[in-house]
């Protein structure tokens, strides 16, 4: 939601932003199935969650303090961030559904409701950060949140 205005802010045009967004979404197609198959065999959700969150945090640092301002640079950095996001997406589902049973139908419904809720809460707080501190505050808080979440993931019990 905030990436397009940021890329406009640093000088990219809409044509390049469209290319960046097209490239950055490819990991959701390439990685989710293989990661899911890997998790089915290894049960390494903890390690994959930490890796995914750390990868996103690292990529956002390179968005926050870009080494270059070309569209290719941002396509690569955001591609890497979405590798992390795709890993986290499939891994959280795997971890959750591995830890519930048929008696937890209500919990499964609640879990599925958190995603649409995040689509409301995230932009609200992100917008507040953007209004009061700009893009650097927004991406700094996002990076800190990702690092803290990766650290929390280290405390998860392995199934």
SSE inventory with pairings:
Elements lengths: L2 H7 L4 H11 L1 H5 L1 H11 L2 H20 L6 H28 L6 H49 L6
Helix pairs in contact: 2-6, 4-6, 5-6, 5-7
Q: How would you characterize the overall build of this protein?
A:
By secondary structure, the chain is mainly α. The chain has helices spanning 3-9, 14-24, 26-30, 32-42, 45-64, 71-98, 105-153. The longest helix has 49 residues, at 105-153. The chain is globular. The N and C termini lie far apart (35 Å).
Order of helices and strands: HHHHHHH
* Structural class category: mainly alpha
Determine the fraction of residues in helical runs and give it as a percent range. Answer: over 70%
Give the N-terminus to C-terminus distance in angstroms: 35 Å
Largest sheet: none
Uncertain ranges:
none
Query: Number of helical runs?
Result: 7
* Mean of all residue-level pLDDT scores: 94
Offer a concise description of the structure:
This protein is mainly α and 159 residues long. The protein contains seven helices and no strands.
Can you tag this structure with a few keywords?
single chain; about 160 residues; mainly alpha; 7 helices
